Amino acid sequence: MTSYEDQPTVQLRALGADPAGGPGRHRRAGRPRPYGRHQPRAAPRLPEEYPAEDAVANGEPGEPGGAPGEPGEPGGGLGEPGGAGAVPRLPARQAFRRFWPLTRGDRRRLVLICACVIAAALAETAAILLFSDLTDNALRQGSLGAFWVPAAQWLAVAVLGAAVGYTGNSLAVWTAERFVLRLRARVFAHVQDLPPHFFQRHRQGDLVERLTGDVESIEQLVVSGVVSTVSALFSTVFFSVAAFRLRWDLALVTFVLAPLFWLAARRFSGRIGSVARDERVADGAITSVVEESLGNVVLTQAYNRKDAEERRLGREARAWMRASVAGARMSELYEQLVEVIETLCVLAVIGLGAWEISQDRMTIGQLLAFAAFLGYLYPPIRNLGQLGLTLTAATAGAERLLEILDAEPAVSDPPPGAAVAPWRVHGTVEFDRVGFRYPGGDRRTLAGVSFTARPGEFVLIAGASGAGKSTVSKLLTRFYDPGEGFVRLDGVPLYAMPLGFLRTNVTLLPQQTLILHDTIRENIACGRPGAAEHEIVRAARDAAAHDFITALPEGYDTRIDPHTARLSGGQLQRIAIARAMLRDAPVLVLDEPTTGLDALAARRVVRPLRRLMSGRTTLMITHDLTLAPDADRILVLDHGRVVEAGTHRELLALEGAYARLHGSGVGALRGTGNGTQEDRSWEDRSLEGRSLEGRSLEGRLGGSPAGTGPQPTLRLGPI
Ligand SMILES: Nc1ncnc2c1ncn2[C@@H]1O[C@H](COP(=O)(O)OP(=O)(O)OP(=O)(O)O)[C@@H](O)[C@H]1O
């Protein structure tokens, strides 16, 4: 039997698609999985191929959700990663329509690529006819003179084919990569606007996989899909015309059997879709486990969790292997079925040819020439059948990506023209009967919260864990909009001003020190891009960071990252303070600025913090009440409500919630709770509280320093 694999077909192979689910990690490593020896090409599927279309239309992820604040809306709607069943099924047509606009700017190039593809198919058809002419005339005549003209023509056609093939391929790869680049940038930009709870609810590794592997698989759906369809269609038409010109009766037999390829592909389409989906999910899961394990390596080692982590990875790896093997088997099964169909077709043609020869209507040479020609004809026909498979598999990646793209940001800029014009912010912060419920949350996190912080005031927000303190900071920096009431800056509701303007004027210093994977200089400079060197150094000096930075061998050029071992937690925090200094915003939100630091480090941070706070409206969220006497006002939150407000003295005198909080913390340590030590410096109090905190732990653990017997247990509030 003719080996069609060896036949030259003009395809833009560089765009070769893997219908088993796109370029997952394993595929990028080079394991080919063609569902046919000739690279399948994507084509739009017929409507009847989508029995689930109605079901999909009902829950189509393309529809924007409701208003922010409602369960599942902003950033919601994304199925729980790790379960293929959670991913909504999307018709390929819709997926194509969603991503096609991204080809804008490259459409002329796409037309040129298609023209190259068509020209290449024409050149190949011409080559086939010239070959037939050569065998029929020159060889039969046995004259070398009859050889030269068709040979020269054949060579010219081959050169032309090579030229358009090269041009088309180069352009196609370039266009495809540009598409991937654009798509990735678009998804990445969208992801960055998503609210915090989106990232809390989704495994980072799975999101990484969506931004890499899944993004690439969309390319097969769109750019390669269009080029492949054009290629397969035109090749089929040209080769068919040539086949009918050679022997119409044999060509007819060939075409009568051709739908078998399409039937086989259709039969496999559903299963390949689900296998591809499983593979994409398995890719995401394994990336997540590896990423989480590496991030938690200290926990793993400290708690002897090595075996447990290995088992976890093993579980995901086995699931991945199962999905991968299922995909490979499906591929192989389809491949072999197509082989059998091809054999059947060739046998039918040879059978008819044998009958024609027996009737003296055909020579053996003609029959062999036609059989050889089938090697050209079947690949594009077969590819047309396989396009659906490629598309189904690529759609699995599209579904996962659209889940991200359809997750809505919790907040957005006011419409153009509706935004309040920027002004010089004084720093009055106002919460006016604010109520808030997290998307998907079952109860209100804040209810009727009202307070005003005037320019330059220091307002401390205290309360038990889970009372809603950090939520106040998220509303003020507009990660979310309140469900009820208003948050205002200088009397203007936050939603009425551009987000960029708000965040330029309200600096957040979160609980977790945010460090970029870059030099110390860049880490400080990102507070105000374009800042001059002397401004960066001044900020570092004010943050008490300049000395330890210059003591490093590479000084400000030292590269750091969030897990850097070169700097301590307190030093990283001081770099973050320097960044905030440089930003020079009139409003400052400090969320547990000394959490995680030991007493000495906290003490070193306190002084620069005071410099940072000076002259700015400051909202400090903290458990550490050693700072409370310095506050102009203290708000005590309990179950999302402000239950007490006043100065340190006033609240202690009330002997209510604040006094209890204070009594369970530093007050108890001082044994007074009446603020008699308020004249002592903040730094000293901080140091004392934290030193005692250490002692309290000793006490709890039953340690008895210097063998003095059991110590009383000291309670320090949340540790
Ligand atoms: N993304 C979220 N989705 C649903 N609920 C959330 C989300 N984030 C926080 N919550 C809930 O809102 C409540 C208040 O959380 P918040 O972080 O504001 O408390 P907190 O007072 O700052 O606590 P802590 O002092 O422990 O940091 C908690 O019950 C918490 O479980």
From TrEMBL:
List the SMART domains. AAA (SM00382)
Keywords assigned by UniProt, alphabetized: ATP-binding, Membrane, Nucleotide-binding, Transmembrane, Transmembrane helix
Give start and end of each ABC transporter domain: 429-664
Q: Where is the composition biased (Polar residues)?
A: 1-10
The residue ranges crossing the membrane are 110-131, 151-176, 221-242, 248-265, 361-378
Q: Where is this region: Disordered?
A: 1-87, 667-719
UniProt feature, compositional bias: Basic residues: 24-40
Compartmental location: Cell membrane
| Start-end of Gly residues biased regions | 62-85
Q: Which domain of life is it from?
A: Bacteria
Q: Has keyword Transmembrane helix?
A: yes
On whether Transferase is a keyword of this UniProt record, the answer is no
Q: How does it sit in the membrane?
A: Multi-pass membrane protein
Q: Which residues form the ABC transmembrane type-1 domain?
A: 111-393
Instruction: Please report the name of this protein according to its UniProt entry.
Output: ABC transporter ATP-binding protein
What does UniProt list as this organism's lineage? Bacteria, Bacillati, Actinomycetota, Actinomycetes, Kitasatosporales
